[in-house]
Specification:
300 residues, mainly alpha, MetI-like fold, 2 domains, 13 helices, globular
């Protein structure tokens, strides 16, 4: 019997390379990169300064504001400005009005935009280019041009001083932009996917909801967020068509009280802060959705 000599065991596992730090980069930043970063930081500071001024002046008393000015920090927290504005305008009612109008407009405008773009981008209707151009030109009209004819039209149909008048107007305005954007996106939609769905027996509605909608969902989510914020911040049309106090939105209620000269500077800052917080919270909640939607739309 032969004995096996012990052989040295050699490891075949390669040596582990040191881990790179998270976020590390092998390339060095150039002077242009630092310049772009500096400009971005400067723009961010310029955007943050007004919000900072509103924030610190919202918690100042009128005496504190008169003695120290708008740039100093408050010596103590003063909540009477927010309470006064909350009670004067019935802020929960105005908050609900803005949320209701913005939500309905965002959902309906996205739906109308998808249907229009599906017909123009994939349906290949005749005169598609001219229709898209006409929609783009209509979207570029200033709101002041629309006030006079819309006022008499909604007066005739009995929708003046009604929230649905504002909803209908903004659905048409927002969907014009959405149609132009989605029509260009769906114009490059892969024909192979549509032909494969047609061979499987899918009709146009099935193709829309089972094929087109899932692929364009990130873009639709971005439009939904933008339409909500744009409608929330609208002022001229709600001011014109919502004259009763119970139907007004948050921006209109702030402007009405400022026009009546019923508020001091600190109460005005508090009203601006309360009007800004809902959209800021909405944006922070859907920030990931917005980022994913823009990224998915940028990558084929």
């Amino acid at each position: 019997m032969t004995t096996l000599e012990a052989l040295p065991v050699t490891s075949t596992i390669p040596a582990r390379t040191p881990k790179r730090r998270r976020g590390g980069s092998t390339s060095h930043k150039t002077l242009g990169d630092w310049a772009i970063l500096g400009v971005a930081i400067l723009i961010g500071l310029l955007i943050a300064v007004p919000f900072f001024l509103i924030l610190i002046n919202s918690f100042k008393s009128p005496a504190d504001y008169n003695s120290s000015g708008p740039l100093s920090l408050p010596t103590g927290l003063y909540f009477d400005g927010m309470i006064n504005f909350w009670e004067r305008v019935n802020f929960p009612e105005k908050l609900w009005n803005s949320f209701f109008i913005s939500s309905v407009v965002a959902v309906l405008a996205v739906g109308v935009s998808l249907l229009n773009a599906y017909a123009l981008g994939i349906g290949r209707v005749r005169g598609r280019t001219w229709i898209v151009l006409l929609i783009l030109l209509a979207n570029m009209l200033p709101q002041e041009v629309l006030l006079y004819p819309l006022y008499f039209m909604f007066k005739l149909v009995g929708l003046y001083d009604n929230q649905w008048a504002v909803i209908i107007i903004f659905v048409v305005i927002q969907s014009a932009f959405g149609t132009y954007l989605l029509a260009s996106v769906l114009g490059t939609f892969p024909k192979e996917i549509l032909e494969a769905a047609s061979l499987d027996g899918a009709n146009r509605w099935t193709i829309l909801w089972k094929v087109v909608y899932p692929i364009t969902k990130p873009t639709l989510s971005v439009l939904l967020i933008f339409f909500f914020i744009w409608t929330w911040n609208e002022f001229l049309i709600p001011l014109t068509f919502l004259v009763s106090n119970a139907a007004q939105t948050v921006p209109v209620s702030i402007a009405v009280l400022q026009g009546d000269r019923l508020m001091d500077v600190t109460t005005t800052s508090a009203s601006a802060l309360l009007g800004l917080l809902p959209t800021l919270i909405f944006f922070l909640i859907f920030q990931r959705t917005l980022t994913r939607g823009i990224t998915a739309g940028a990558v084929k």
